[in-house]
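FAQ: What does the model actually see?

It sees only this:
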Amino acid sequence: MTHKTPPRLAAWLLTRISGPSIAGDYEEIYQEWVRDHGDRTARARYWTQVWRSLPMLTANALFGSTSMFKNYIKSAWRNILRRKRYALLNITGLAIGLAVCLLITAYVLHEKSFDTMHTSYDRIYRIIGTIPMGGQSLRNGVVSAPLGPAAAASIPEIESEVRLLRRHNTSVQVGNVEFKEEKIFLAEQAILQVFALPLHRGDPKSALEAPFTVILEEDLAKKYFGDRDPMGQTIRIMLNQVYDFTVTGVMRRLPSNTVLRRPMIASFATLQQIQPDALTHWESWGSFTTFVRLHERADPEAVSTKLTALARSNLPEEEQDASYSLQPISRIYLDNTSISNNLDNSGSSSRLYVFSAVAMLMLLIAAINFINLSTAKISGRLKEVGIRKTCGAVRGHLIKQFLTESLLLTTAAMVAGLLLFSLFKPRLDLYLGKTLILGMLATPWIFPLLAAVVMLVAFGAGSYPALFLSRAPAAVIFRSRLPLGISKSGMRRTLVGIQFFIAASLITCTLAVLKQVRFSETKDLGFDQTGLIVLYNQDAHHLENAEVIKRRLLNATGIISASSVDHFPYGQNRSLSTIRHEGTPEDVLVQSMEVDADFLPTMGLRLITGRNFQSIRTSDAQTLLLNEAAVRHLGFEEPLGKRIQRNDKNYHVIGVVEDWHTNSIHSPIHPTIFFPAEASAAGLVIRLPRQNSREVVARIREFWAEFMPGQIFNFAYIEDLHLHSYNEEKRLASLLVFFCGLTVVVACLGIFGLAAYSTEQRTKEIGIRKVLGSSLTGIILLLTQSYGRWVLAANLLAWPAAYFIVHKWLQAFAYRTTIGLDPFLLSGLITMLIALFSVIFQTLKAALADPVRSLRYE
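And it is asked to produce this:
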């Protein structure tokens, strides 16, 4: 009979896992099957037996047998208990590293997942306008109102469109109680279909169809109405004046990773009632955020070209150079560079890179700690290895033993890290004001990746003693000679140096960030913002009573001074316009404000040259003031008397005002022109007295209720508006301080453990030195000097890297602090003190011990 060979792949698997002897036995059985049942049946049975045997054979190949595996676990557990301090340090350091990595990963994933929860989000785009103004091309997130409906009607690739109008700091009245909502939308009915907002009360097909209807988020409905049913209730909302709205729907709480997150959405049809002209006027700049959903396989570039052609066919002749493009909704939050009028506080890709780097460095430090402490105990287990080899243990068994122990420690660290993550994540959510999602359903790949990292660390920590210590012959071990390549104290010190290089870099960067945040908060803005409020009189637009209300407030409330303005600039509220001046026919882009004669003294601004507006001069209606930045921008050497044209009206310069910051210090001071305010100016800047300011605000509120009964009291502290620009930097600084502190803690755990082990190894040496007359100081210096050298070297290498990173980060600020030497010297001092304290704590304990006991050690 011809000899038949088993299936090659199956035989190869069997040989690789179980060895040639068992594979040979299986081959003999295979020959019997061929003889009795035929070749095809024999092959099928062979494969079946291989698959059935594969789990058992794999387990035996890895662990020898179940009893051997139990022995490995038992021995590993005993070794851990015997060295509880090192095990605790190992587990704690790695657990903190894993927890921090998970927290930062949750934050990064949240920021990168904005608006990906919508159905067909990959087909939803925002229309962006690019408008040349004053020699610049400005990208704008809002467009004119007619563009959206016209595009949906004439461009076949567009499936549907949605228009939104944002309102900030809107006053709302429910019964006799007043509220202020930071952000609301007026939106078309299609928003409930295109974005599938979670409406659980009301009809999603008609909730926003009628004018003066509104839907509320469930938390807001609870705040307004308590346990009462909100459906059908009336609330009063201040738009250009106060209107009554009926609640027609209640939304479930929207996720925090969407730019559409608003607690209140009013119907867009309301605008057709109160501002019908605004919805039919074509202009290049516009005020409306417009989304379109494209049909499948539509080309966004082709649609952008058609949008530009459509807009230009309707825009005035002087605005024909405007162009339009589409921005994916999932990129709005992060891709916001130089786009005005964004929907929400924008994210930052650079911020995500910073935190991702911190997460990786933190995990690296934790892994280095783990490996360092694991390899440091090698020489203490030489006799154990020698006895095991004498009793018949082969090298493979020893390798499995060390790897099992390392895996047990890393598994415990992973469990502890997950517990820490679960404990601190709600607190991070609360601090950020966001709900970070990280779990098996939302991110099913994260935990397999985490398990892979843990396995990698376990192998890195266990492979060195497993591969090298197990190689040593028993005779060499019992002669107390370390096998070649095992004594690696130099390697451990190098790893400690790497740890403190990372720690010093992070500390330096964090101190520089704190320094810039402090600079932002304390920089002289050019005016005294303490006690300044801005109040809006919406009736001034049609009653033209700005001056009358200002005078009544001055006489009746005890305020120090007040000024009528058209608006107060902050954030994106810059009120850009173009002007022309003598000597150039080109338009120049500037920031403009309309103010009265009381503005400079109320704000505390200094006039450098010329004079201020004077209310008694009717001729001042054709005058203006410039700030210093405008004088430089316009190229005036002698600005007084210069002629400037705006909207076909001519003005002449009568004074120059010292520069002051209207926006955050991220951007330079804008060239600003002050025009004389008209009686329709809606804003009032009020200077409160330093004493009893709350009582004065209460009197202003009473005045408002008496003389402006149709308006809601809508005011804000200018100091709050200014500081709001730095909220993200403050959060960044606080989180960096927290994570940097944890990095230092983990680094300390590692050096603490190494110092403890090193001291234990030199216990007899310390005893002998004390007997021979060595002083306490001499012993401490002997044991700490090597660590001090490595920490100093780590700082010297960390400083150039930190300087490069900080220098790049500070470029985002138009006004920034000098880096100086203090962050570098302070980080060096902190790391050196921490390292030396960790080492001295251990060495002092050994140095103070009785030398008799030290000599009896072991």
